[in-house]
Write a structure and sequence with these properties.
The complex is a heterotetramer of chains A (266), B (300), C (373) and D (408).
Chain A: E1 7-18, E2 21-32, E3 36-40, H1 47-54, E4 62-67, E5 75-76, H2 82-88, E6 90-92, H3 105-112, H4 121-126, H5 129-148, H6 164-176, E7 182-186, H7 194-211, E8 214-218, H8 222-228, E9 231-236, E10 239-244, H9 246-251, H10 253-259
Parallel strand pairs in A: 3-8, 3-9, 6-7, 7-8
Antiparallel strand pairs in A: 1-2, 1-4, 4-5, 9-10
Chain B: H1 2-32, H2 39-59, H3 64-91, H4 100-120, E1 126-127, H5 147-169, H6 171-181, H7 183-188, H8 193-219, E2 221-222, H9 226-241, H10 246-267, H11 272-286
Antiparallel strand pairs in B: 1-2
Chain C: H1 2-25, E1 28-35, H2 42-61, E2 69-76, H3 81-94, E3 98-100, H4 105-117, E4 121-124, H5 131-134, E5 141-143, H6 148-162, E6 167-172, H7 176-192, E7 196-202, H8 211-219, E8 224-228, H9 231-243, E9 250-252, H10 259-265, E10 273-277, H11 284-297, H12 305-322, H13 327-336, E11 339-341, E12 344-348, E13 354-355, E14 359-365, E15 368-371
Parallel strand pairs in C: 1-2, 1-3, 3-4, 4-5, 6-7, 6-8, 8-9, 9-10
Antiparallel strand pairs in C: 10-14, 11-12, 12-13, 14-15
Helix pairs in contact in C: 2-12, 3-4, 6-7, 9-10, 12-13
Classes of the chains: A alpha/beta (266), B mainly alpha (300), C alpha/beta (373), D mainly alpha (408).
Chain lengths: 266, 300, 373, 408
């Protein structure tokens, strides 16, 4: 277990209401440098809503979302637009894949570089030395990432033509292109076969270890979660019901109860 | 004060017509999230067919009331047929296409139908027989409201109530609401979604045709182009009220009708359309989902 | 390759020398007729085209002008300036001698520069915008209809003096023509100082109804309405005024004075006043032309038929008198020699307006426009 | 096959019923006469029958194609001839050369009329290319694009009539004014989704026209602005013929300039962000793209071209009035973009030339022009949503070698 040095993401008492419905109820969660943290729970527990609140797609009703980027000052990011959240250094993937279908695989990753490059309309027209350098850096970096997620050979394909598992990996590559310190993965293994899942398992660990990116993931595949997570949070009906290491969670009676119906397919 | 009443009345009459057309827009949008841009043309075609039928019947010696009934009936039947065909040709093949495609197809259909009527009939204005008998009210009511205006208000109200009842209590109404909620789910539980969509177009077209006939006999003239502006305004009304929401469409239409009428009355009718669109932009900025629309959180 | 290009170039140069030359060598006189022949304003352009074709057919049957046959080249400008310039260059490159047109003032302004450059005379049957002649910017422009300011003055005088109105509402359709007429009416009424203008307002053509404006007219207690615009809006206004029990005089310009208005407004048209070109139906030329038209087309001729016919007659007469299609000669002939036309015996003044044409006031009586003496 | 026939027969019957009152009956309420045009019924029947057969055939073909695409066949190996023309130097170089010569020689070969309408067509090429950015690339449907065109034209008209400012000074000002209006109108509607956007932009288009009509002190209202000078050439005095030829070459340069710039932008950080915004707004923003900035950029950039070419339009006509800036023009430019294939530059150029020149050459059919536009828009969406010539995606040259270096 890697040594916990400092917190990257610190969520305190996050609450999200939709009209009368409380989708997330005072949930607190931390992610520290070098960690892989999983957020699990039955369907409809509010996990994705939690993600959406953290990444700025929804504005949380109450609570604090604090980020402590490495080597930069901390910020409270409640209500930030999601592009700002990404620029700060937290990138995400989506549960139901949201790729840019009619763009090539490479271009999808290049979009990730958008917030790390600065070319303006004028710059794009003039194509000065700086623009060209950035452009080349973007291309190289993107090929590089594609290679890491093993999609290099698909670079010029349209994203919509990729097999399912490859689309999930492309989402990860695209998120990584934004140079995040924390990657939020929303059910990355959904719909994958066992081999693909195993490869994903390795990929996630590799990302953490070689790229030094911490990971927060939502996942239903218990095997994957138990294999790679350092810590696990469990949600049910919008509330946090347990947290701890994989072993603790496995033996936590509350969690077993919450999952009883679903255990069969896990 | 009297002036205010007069303006309110013209606003409400105009609003009722907008409402009849706006309902068609809103129903279609509610179910397949498509702006049926050609909806205004159905209104125009309804008016034209009523004019033609009335003309032919007059020549063959029919009398007042029977003309009104027959012309109205045939116009609505034809409008329904056009609405049905329109959906089958221009929208059904695009059910799974990107969002922009059916919209452009709809604009194309609108241009096509306008020019079809222009070429098949005439580019000129035609005189529309006043099918609604003009029985006189007494002053001071007479100059505020005439019989045609009253008929428009009453017909619109009846049509709207009928529509609400239909959607709330009948089988097809339930199927429509189910489809509106979730098309895939509705299909799974055995709703024939294609039929529901067709019915929606037919219903909307019938309402539009009623509007066309009413306006025709109220104003006394029609040409191939009347559907375009009416359609745009009605759509504006639907958006104002919260598109997809039936009471919203009626409310939006009334707000728009009144806004135009007051703008014309108190400021200048030269800027009438500027006000109409200005109100739209303002409301969309303040309440992007319209007056009665629910803020729909897009599922991520 | 290089040789080929040179050859081609020579060919082009030769061709370009031949093409204009053929224009002169031909034994036909080409007359362009430009106006809206399609679209929503077609009703104002097609009668002129038909008139020009009829005159040409007659002249050709009688041996042509100066022994040459007359060929009419009709061109559709849809009343849009950009299309009008296309049409103008097309006519110039076809080598026409005179252009009858254009019909709309805006399109005319766009096209005139091109004709002026090519030294071609344009005679419009209907472009009533005053600056076309009065500004002096368009020396090659003539018209067989009187300018709008005459019409505005007539309407203003009629409303204040004959009808004795004190509070006048002026409504216009915001268009070039309608607004122009409304502006001149306003100007003359204000200058005369006999009446007050209580409302001066534009309406949107194609709006669903005008009941708010009608209420406004009532609210302002106007005792007469002057309307600048075309017949569809006029009939809508008149209809709604009747529905709202408003019985005040309604005066429109020549865009209202036509069968279109009578047809659409129906019963509501009764009693409406409109200014229009002076009644010329008594002239023998006019009677003949109308009879010819009716026997050919089986209906009454449309708007600006008389003016279009007259423009064509004037053009051909000028060619005959000057003995050619030379610009200076034509100019002299148009300005000096009288010609019998469907709008009377006319010649053109120094600015290009026809002398001897004018407006009078009509009223709808028993479903017909009757000239008021 | 007989089933086909039977169904088409039924369709024909249906259309005979549908079109009967409008196509066959023509009633004159004044004279109380009815004209029965039975021949029309026959034409409708035959037409509907044939079209229905074609329609079924085409739909089936489309489905077949979709299936093939789904079964994983590589699309890029089956580029259409049109696309191959674009990517294979062996094919496109000679074509380009011929085109170049033809373009240069055009005013020498044809008369002033041809040159003049060509200028108009080229104006619409630039408009198409500009709207292509907003609609095709960024996916923001704009039904009031003509407003920016009007802004450009009136900028020149007003600057010239009030202060006598010349063409060359007005040209960039017109473009900038267009862009400025693009931003100003873009601001309030940033948050609106596609359909709302459509209606609001339509509203803006008509508001622009109403303002021009009513703001008489400045725009001269419906009377329009006359006597706008043609583009000058170092103060040289030119006849109409040479001025037209000169404007033609100017427009050619303009088109090349537009293509050059839009192409550069398309293959840039900005262009990619536009496309991503079109594909999926939420994901795009979640990847760190600033939605407001990007959208406004797309509006402003699209509007810039309309403003720029509006100046040339005013100079070419020497006269402008509000009639040239109606919804029909917006619809025309939109059909150019749709027909050309959204995002495709060559497609847009061809579509603009066809749609503008066709009615000039086929004047007899000009009445059918709008009818055909409508039909084309519907048919293109159903059968060829990618347009005449689909956009070819650029392949980026990244160095695998280099990336490995970075890895090492």
């Amino acid at each position: 277990m890697p040594e916990i040095t400092n917190k990257l993401l610190e969520v305190k008492g996050l609450t999200m209401d939709f009209g009368g419905l409380r989708a997330v109820d005072t949930v607190s969660l931390d992610v520290c440098t070098g960690e892989i943290v999983a957020l699990i729970g039955p369907n409809g527990a509010g996990k994705t809503t939690f993600f959406n609140c953290v990444t700025g797609i929804y504005k949380p009703t109450r609570g604090d979302v604090l980020v402590h980027p490495p080597a930069k000052k901390s910020q409270r990011i409640n209500g930030f637009k999601s592009n700002r959240v990404t620029t700060i250094g937290m990138a995400r993937t989506f549960q139901n894949i949201r790729l840019f279908q009619n763009m090539t695989v490479l271009e999808n990753v290049m979009i990730g570089r958008h917030c790390r490059t600065t070319t303006s309309i004028l710059g794009a027209i003039l194509r000065g030395a700086k623009t060209m350098r950035q452009e080349q850096e973007t291309v190289n970096r993107s090929y590089d990432l594609l290679e890491k997620v093993d999609l290099f050979k698909y670079a010029d394909e349209f994203a919509k033509n990729l097999p399912y598992g490859a689309q999930r990996r492309l989402e990860i590559a695209r998120a990584m292109a934004t140079d995040p310190f924390l990657l939020l993965l929303d059910e990355p293994a959904a719909g994958m076969n066992p081999q693909e899942t195993r490869a994903l398992d390795e990929l996630i660990v590799r990302v953490r270890d070689t790229e030094k990116i911490a990971i927060l993931l939502i996942e239903h595949d218990m095997k994957l979660v138990m294999n790679i997570s350092d810590r696990i949070y469990v949600m049910e009906y919008g509330k946090e019901i347990a947290q701890g290491g994989p072993m603790d969670i496995r033996n936590n009676p509350k969690v077993i109860e919450a999952y009883l119906g679903e255990e069969a397919d896990a | 004060m009297q002036y205010f009443l007069e303006l309110s009345c013209s606003g409400l009459v105009r609003g009722s017509i907008y409402a009849l057309i706006a309902l068609g827009y809103t129903m279609v949008y509610g179910i397949i999230q498509l702006i049926n841009f050609a909806h205004g043309e159905i209104y125009m075609i309804g008016a034209f067919i009523a004019l033609i039928v009335a003309g032919v019947l007059t020549i063959y010696g029919f009398s007042g009331v029977s003309i009104l009934i027959l012309a109205g009936l045939i116009a609505t039947i034809y409008a329904a047929a056009y609405g049905y065909t329109l959906e089958k040709i221009a929208y059904r093949p695009l059910r799974n296409a990107p969002r922009l495609s059916p919209l452009i197809s709809a604009i194309g259909m609108s241009l096509f139908l306008q020019n079809y009527v222009l070429l098949a009939q005439t580019p000129d204005f035609l005189s529309f027989p006043s099918l609604i008998p003009d029985f006189g009210f007494m002053e001071p009511v007479a100059h505020i409201m005439g019989s045609a205006e009253l008929v428009i208000l009453v017909t619109s109200a009846v049509a709207m109530v009928a529509l609400t009842v239909l959607i709330k209590y009948t089988r097809i109404g339930k199927a429509m609401r189910a489809t509106q909620q979730d098309m895939t789910m509705a299909r799974l539980v055995g709703v024939n979604v294609d039929n529901v969509i067709s019915v929606t177009f037919v219903l909307g077209s019938v309402l539009a045709a009623i509007g066309g006939v009413l306006v025709g006999s109220y104003i006394g003239q029609i040409n191939f182009y009347i559907g375009f502006m009416a359609g745009v305004k009605a759509f504006t009304a639907a958006v104002l009220g919260g598109i997809g929401n039936i009471p919203g469409a009626v409310l939006g239409a009334m707000v728009l009708g009144l806004a135009e009428s007051f703008a014309a009355g108190y400021i200048s009718s030269a800027y009438e359309d500027v006000f109409a669109f200005g109100v739209l932009v303002l409301i969309l900025i303040l309440r992007p989902s319209g007056l009665l629309g629910k803020a729909v959180k897009q599922k991520v | 390759m290089r040789k080929l290009v040179t050859k081609k170039f020579v060919l082009i140069v030769l061709l370009s020398m031949i093409i204009p030359a053929t224009g002169f060598a031909a034994d036909t006189i080409k007359i362009g007729v430009a106006g809206p022949h399609s679209g929503d304003l077609a009703a104002y352009g097609i009668p002129t085209k038909e008139a020009a074709e009829m005159v040409a057919a007659q002249v050709n049957a009688a041996g042509g002008v100066l022994g040459m046959q007359v060929e009419v080249l009709p061109m559709d400008d849809q009343c849009k300036p950009e299309i009008a310039t296309n049409v103008a260059t097309k006519l110039v490159s076809e080598g026409v001698s005179v252009v009858i047109g254009h019909v709309c003032s805006g399109a005319t302004k766009a096209a005139l520069g091109i004709y002026n450059e090519a030294k071609i005379i344009a005679i419009s049957p209907s472009a009533t915008n005053p600056p076309l002649t009065q500004s002096g910017e368009y020396p090659n422009f003539y018209r067989t209809i009187a300018p709008d300011d005459d019409q505005g003055k007539l309407a203003a005088d009629f409303v204040t003096k004959k009808l004795g109105a004190k509070k006048i509402a002026i409504i216009h359709d915001k268009g070039d023509y309608g607004k122009g007429f409304a502006d001149f009416s306003k100007q003359f009424i204000e200058a005369a100082g006999m009446a007050e203008i209580v409302l001066f307002e534009g309406i949107t053509p194609g709006a669903m109804d005008y009941s708010a404006v009608v209420q406004k007219i009532r609210h302002e207690n106007a005792d007469a309405v002057i309307f600048g615009g075309y017949h569809p809006e006029a009939s809508k206004l008149v209809g709604q005024m009747n529905k709202k029990r408003m019985k005040i005089p309604f005066v429109g310009p020549d865009g209202v004075k036509g069968d279109g208005f009578l047809e659409i407004a129906g019963k509501d048209a009764e009693g409406v006043y409109a200014t229009g070109p002076m009644d010329v139906s008594a002239y023998p030329e006019n009677k003949q032309a109308k009879a010819d038209y009716t026997s050919k087309y089986g209906k009454e001729p449309g708007t600006f038929f008389d003016q279009g016919y007259a423009a064509m007659q004037a053009a051909l007469n000028a060619i005959k008198v000057s003995g050619g299609t030379d610009y200076a000669g034509l100019e002299k002939a148009l300005k000096n020699s009288f010609v019998d036309t469907t709008v009377g015996k006319i010649k053109f003044d120094a600015k290009g307006d026809a002398e001897g044409v004018g407006f009078s006031v009509y009223q709808v009586q028993d479903g017909k426009f009757v000239e008021l003496k | 096959m007989s089933d086909y026939m039977k169904r088409s027969f039924l369709v024909a019957l249906w259309f005979v019923f549908l079109t009967f009152p409008l196509m066959v009956v023509k009633v004159n309420t004044l004279k109380n006469t009815v004209e029965w045009r039975w021949m029309n019924m026959l034409w409708v029947a035959i037409g509907a029958f044939v079209l229905s057969l074609l329609w079924r055939w085409a739909l089936e073909r489309r489905q077949l194609k979709n299936k093939e695409a789904e079964s994983g066949e590589d699309e890029s190996t089956r580029l259409g001839f049109g696309q191959r023309l674009l990517v294979e130097p062996k094919l496109y170089k000679p074509v380009l050369a011929v085109l170049f010569v033809a373009t240069i020689a055009f005013p020498l070969l044809f008369d002033i009329y041809q040159t003049n309408i060509m200028v108009l067509a080229l104006v619409f090429v630039v408009l198409g290319l500009g709207l292509n950015v907003t609609v095709g690339l960024a996916g923001l449907l704009d039904l009031g694009y003509v407003a920016f065109f009007a802004v450009g034209a009136y900028t020149y008209g007003i600057l010239n009539s009030f202060w006598g400012i010349g063409f060359w000074t007005s040209l960039p000002i017109g473009g900038l004014m267009g862009a400025l209006f693009g931003i100003a109108l873009g601001f309030p509607i940033l948050r609106l989704r596609g359909d709302y956007l459509a209606i609001v932009t339509l509203g803006f288009g008509s508001i622009a026209k109403i303002v021009i009509e009513n703001w008489e002190e400045v725009t001269n209202g419906a009377k329009g602005i006359a006597g706008i000078p043609r583009p000058g050439f170092f103060g040289a005095d030119m006849s109409i013929t040479s001025a037209t030829t000169y404007t033609y070459y100017l427009m050619i340069l303009m088109v090349i300039f537009t293509i050059f710039i839009t192409n550069r932008l398309k293959d840039s950080r900005i262009g990619r962000a536009w496309m991503a915004l079109r594909e999926d707004e939420i994901a795009c923003v979640a990847m760190g793209v600033d939605m407001a900035k990007t959208k406004l950029g797309a509006y402003a950039f699209g509007a810039f071209w309309a403003g720029l070419v509006g100046v040339i339009f005013a100079a070419r006509n020497t006269y402008i009035n509000p009639n040239s800036f109606t919804f029909m023009e917006s619809a025309l430019v939109l059909s150019i973009v749709v027909m050309g294939g959204m995002g495709s530059i060559v497609g847009v150029i061809i579509a603009a030339l066809v749609l503008i020149l066709m009615p000039e050459y086929l004047r007899a059919f000009s009445e059918y022009r709008m009818l055909m536009f409508g039909a084309i828009m519907v048919l293109m969406m159903i059968f060829r949503p990618e347009g005449l010539i689909a956009n070819v995606r650029r392949k980026y040259r990244g160095h695998k070698v280099m990336t490995e270096d970075v890895n090492a």
